[in-house]
Amino acid sequence: MIDALAAGLPQVFADGHQVQQVLLNLVINAEQAMLSAHGRGILVVRSWHDADQDTVVLEINDDGPGIPDDLQPKIFDPFFTTKEVGTGTGLGLTVAYAIVQEHGGRIRLESRPNAGASFCVEMPITGTRLAPTPLTRARPPHIVAGASILVVEDEARLASAVVDALRDAGYLVDHAPDGEEALARVKAQSFDLVICDLKMPRVDGKAFYGMLEAAAPGLSKRVIFVTGDVAGTDAEKFLKESGCRWLAKPFRLGDLMIAVREELA
């Protein structure tokens, strides 16, 4: 790794731990890209003061395979990943994007196929918020007024991304980390739709669904399951018998939004 950090940079107002999380994510992604491409690589970390934009810029540059042009607009989308199934959630860059945006900053990608990639994190000096990097988030054209959705998911980061996306789309959203707490939420208030993981601690999705059929039979017909490793398992049989829609992990956020819209139609 080559360190080209500038000295005497202007100060920015930021949470050091969160900025560290952003940079660590970018460094790990760069390392994995270089190792997968040719087993080695050169990583350059540099910083400078952009006087024209009144920002401090941190750049992570690698000499890996780069990112194809058609994938670059999707790189910050939730659940988008170029990694093999099971090796990533597709949330790392989404989390980095959210942190930088919360600081009034901006993160952008510069890349050419087979010529490496550079991620630049721009942080404002004066406190003026920068125009955010555009996201290609899917938004349903029609929102069911007042639709309330319960997300049942034990993986905190994934749950947070789904909840935020649904709220951004105009839905009322609540979250439960397992089936036991989800059942308590259902008994305490009404929901129009449930998005539920199958594998969870304490009470899993299959057991929760059985209790939901008894407690709220109408709602049990409006459940979207999300899970991995379905083929040839008990989960496959359960999903067929329930008749519920399901999405295999990792899934695209756009596919989830389409499923939500269709279930609420």
Describe the structure.
The chain is built from seven helices and ten strands. With 265 residues, it is α/β, with parallel strands linked by helices. A five-stranded mixed sheet has the order 1-2-3-5-4. A five-stranded parallel sheet has the order 7-6-8-9-10, with helices on both faces. Strand 9, helix 6 (234-242) and strand 10 (245-248) form a beta-alpha-beta unit. The N and C termini lie far apart (53 Å).
* SSE succession: EHEEHEEEHEHEHEHEH
Number of strands: 10
Q: What is the mean pLDDT?
A: 81
Largest sheet: 5 strands, mixed
Class by SSE composition: alpha/beta
> Main sheet: which strands, in order across?
1-2-3-5-4
Unreliable sequence segments: 85-90, 136-143
Indicate the proportion of strand residues. Answer: 15-25%
How far the N terminus sits from the C terminus, by CA atoms, comes to 53 Å
Dominant shape: elongated
Structure annotation, total helices:
7
What percent of the residues sit in helical stretches (DSSP H or I)?
A: 25-40%
Q: Gyration radius, to the nearest Å?
A: 21 Å
